[in-house]
Structure formats: C-alpha cells, structure tokens
Fold this sequence. Notes:
By secondary structure, this protein is α+β, with helices and mostly antiparallel strands. The protein has helices at 2-26, 32-55, 63-93, 109-113, 193-204, 216-225, 253-261, 270-288, 291-295, 297-307, 314-326, 363-377; strands at residues 127-134, 146-155, 160-165, 171-174, 181-184, 210-215, 229-233, 237-239, 242-244, 247-251, 309-310, 332-337, 340-344, 357-361.
Amino acid sequence: xxxxxxxxxxxxxxxxxxxxxxxxxxxxxxxxxxxxxxxxxxxxxxxxxxxxxxxxxxxxxxxxxxxxxxxxxxxxxxxxxxxxxxxxxxxxxxxxxxxxxxxxxxxxxxxxxxxxxxxxxxxxxxxxxxxxxxxxxxxxxxxxxxxxxxxxxxxxxxxxxxxxxxxxxxxxxxxxxxxxxxxxxxxxxxxxxxxxxxxxxxxxxxxxxxxxxxxxxxxxxxxxxxxxxxxxxxxxxxxxxxxxxxxxxxxxxxxxxxxxxxxxxxxxxxxxxxxxxxxxxxxxxxxxxxxxxxxxxxxxxxxxxxxxxxxxxxxxxxxxxxxxxxxxxxxxxxxxxxxxxxxxxxxxxxxxxxxxxxxxxxxxxxxxxxxxxxxxxxxxxxx
Length: 383
C-alpha cells in the first residue's frame, strides 16, 4: 500500500510540475532568467519523479522520508501557480473597462487616437503616468472631481522619475464635455478620466500613456496595509487634533490623507499641498518597491481590486514588477510644481456665475516642465 501511495504522489507531482511549466510559459510571471531557472528545477523534479516511479518497490528504503519530501514539493507546485493565478485575476480586476462610465465617451475621435495603445515598456522606454486622486470615499468606480493631479515621467532602465504636481485649481481649457472652455482642472473629473488626461496632454503638449486612479479610501487602506509611510515634513501644522511636526514623521492611512489634503495652514496653499502629495507618492513608491512587498503582492492586490483603477495593461504591470525584481534599489525622484498665481472672478464653465478661486499657470513654467518631460522620456508630443 505504501508503494501505491508514493507512486500516486509522484504522478501527481509530475502533473503539477508540467502544469507549473505551462503556467510559466503562458504568463510573464517573474523575470525571464528567474523563469528559466525555475523551469530547469521543475524539469529535474519531473525526471527524478519518473525515475523513482520506475524504481520504487516493496524493498525500497526511506519510503516515508521520500513521501514527505515529495508531498511538500507537490504542494509547492500546486500552491504557487494557484497563488500567482489569483494575482493575475486581481490585476485584471483593477483594469478600467473601455466602456466604463468613467471614460469620457464625448471626446473627439482624434483625441482618442492620440493615446497610443502600444506598450511603452517593451524596451525600457520612458513613459508618462498620470496619477489621479479623486475627492470621494468608498468604491472607486464613480465619477468625481480630481483632488490630486500628479504627472510622472518615468524611465525604468535608469530608475528615474520626474514628478510634476499640477494644482487642482489650475485654470485651463477642459477637453471632452468641457468643450475646451476654461475652468478649474479639478472640474474635468466630472466629465470622466479621459477628459482630465487629454486636458493635461493639451497643457504640456505630451501624450500620457497610462493613468492610475485612487480616492480617499484607497489612500487610507493602502498606507495602512503597508504599515504606514515615512515622509519629510517641511512645516509644523495642525489638522483637527493631529499636529504634524517638522522633520521625518511616520503616518498611518488617516494621517496620510490629512497630510496630503491640508492647504489652509500654508502661505502658498495649493503649492505646498501639491508638494506634500508628492512626498506621499514618493514614500509609497519607496515602500512599494521593497522586495518583501513585491513577494507578497497578492495581499496588496486584493486591496487594489476594490480601491484602484488603471488603464495600464496587465502585461505592462508585470513587466514593471519583473524589472523591479531584476533591478531592485531606490528610485531617483525629482519633484517640481507648475508655477502660477491665484485669481478670483474668472468664469467657470461647470459652475457659471460662481466666484471661484482659480490658479493661472505661468507659460514659462509650462514650457519648462514640458522640456524636462521630453528630456527624460524622449521627444513625445501631441502636435
């Protein structure tokens, strides 16, 4: 009976190893060199299992030890693909559906065609990622104004990021259902994510490749799951009962949200708020690129399923993860902000007749930011 059980276990192990190899070939899980090493190990496991199946007999010694060892190997060959497959399902779940109401169906076809569907990560090229934080709690799949607008030029092969903060009150022509009428950038969010993306494209003369969309609940949940983040605070200020001391401070999810949203405590208001939002995003990148986080990605993806949306294809997300595994280490992040000046009394297309605060962007600052973006990722314009 012992021989039959051991042989059955070896056969299951062989089948599980064959499936594992198929799974690795089918999906871009792990960098190519890592996959090759794992496939070689699995092939050796299959060969050894076949040999033992042929040689095992009633007089074979160490059957119990072999049974325990191959039970563990078999469990590994079943559990790991199952876990990785759950991660792939989570990556699919955070994808924004092209037919979602978050998309702006009223954009001109020319606007839509400008967004190149080809991967920008195939050859470690630089690419543009727009980070949108909307002013709502709860489920992410709803339309709302933008509260944080950060454009990132990313060059993975050199681990460089140029992070551009755009004040939410920036007075610009709003694309899509905004009919190119001037208004606050934050109001573009009520017309859909594509409206905001195209508005920023038009502002800097670039083509954003991907976006990531979160809300207030997303920030709280993700930061708490990461065990909090550390940021370098430039000013002493207070939000309700919480005092944010100057210097390096550790923040939980709720504190992070308050830190990123406060503006009334600062002389330069929205500009400092944008800088604080950049500090939060920088801290999240630093914490999220830790190898221990990547190796436990499935736990984090479960939160992302509910509270994060992106149009970056699953394949490109996996490429970035694989590149980080192959080339771990800190990123060189440069932070800049769009300069301008505040003004009252300008017309709002979304809220006609209202006397709202607007932020008039400086043309020189727009050109400077555009030039820096193109220098980092290569010439890429929408003209």
